[in-house]
Amino acid sequence: MSEHNPPPSLIPHYTTAEVANLLGMAVRSVQLMVDRGELEAWKTPGGHRRITRASVEQWRTRQSGTPAPAPTMAAAAPASIPAAAQGPASAKSVTRVLLIEDSVHFQNLVRLLLQRHFPQVELHVAHDGITGMALYGQIQPDVLLVDILLPDIDGAALITTLRTHAQFARSKLLVVTSLDAAEREAYAFALSGVRVIHKPQLVQQLPQVMQELLQAESA
Question: Is 0.85 surpassed by the pTM of this model?
Fold first, then answer.
């Protein structure tokens, strides 16, 4: 965990809850990011984490590939959806798909299928659930593709967490998994009413299911 003696009080910082709100993820996920050294933090005498604004902006830059704004000395109240992610109204005309999948093979397969059948779609990829939750808050995808078996947090828990955020209601959800119907029973609490594609049928089923989801999104 990247924690050290508190910096001068003038250095801008967030609480853990503020970072969670800013990135659109759970407080526990932010704590894990601090523990892994992805965010720079220190602890107050009372044991509360304080996370530097600079490290949050640097993390967002690494995830999105866009330049981070220079931190200012004035404190700013974080928004539930980052302003940078919202962009101009015209930018949201692009159909965004977020794939949360740790297998490089299936990442490449989904990318190939989307490029072939839906070249107009903008695909974003996250390798784990925590990164996926952060990207979700930033790009607000039209379609969310989630694997069930993910590092750090499984897909079912991720879906359950995202459902607590109002912006999740506008996304179409599709689960892709190597688990068969019997193995998926343990995750039924999160998969009720959700479209599921068994990975052995991904090539055959994904184009048709995506077409249906995109038509529903544009209706």
Answer: no
Segments in the chain forming alpha helices (H): 16-23, 27-35, 53-64, 83-86, 104-117, 129-139, 155-162, 188-191, 202-218
**In the chain, ranges of CATH 1.10.1660.10 domains:** 13-78
Report the topology of domain 13-78.
Multidrug-efflux Transporter Regulator; Chain: A; Domain 2 (1.10.1660)
SS3 40: coil
Q: How far apart are the C-alpha atoms of 218 and 6, rounded to whole Å?
A: 49
Q: Indicate the pLDDT class of residue 63, thresholds 50, 70 and 90.
A: low
Q: And the tokens for 2?
A: 């990247």
